[in-house]
Specification:
This protein is α+β, with helices and mostly antiparallel strands. Helices cover 27% and strands 30% of the residues. The protein has helices at 2-20, 101-107, 114-120, and strands spanning 34-41, 54-61, 66-73, 78-89.
Amino acid sequence: PGAGYLEMARAASDAATDAATDAATDAATNAASSLLRRVFFLQPLLLDGDVAQLRVVCELNAAEERFEVRSELTEEGASTAHCGGSTGAAPPDDERRRPQPAAVRGSCGAAVSAADLYSAF
């Protein structure tokens, strides 16, 4: 679910960026690219019981550069926030800013197996 929340926020931010651009601009040269920052996962989405009235909504406040993903039960009017954070335009593509795999691997202390990692939790 966490990856889904992030994808919803990114897609909403990209759509808002696309809507704000000049319609005459070639879409291929103006591909939207959003950056999500200070993301908080607040509460998991539990799918138990009747989910027919459940909606998952991503609300984007472009003026404040904020997003929130929440679930709503339409019949009851109840709402639960699941994820939130800041959004904005990503900086132009710059090779110097991209992580270099060799440098990232070199900054890691030691390899850890998935079993050892999860047992630490």
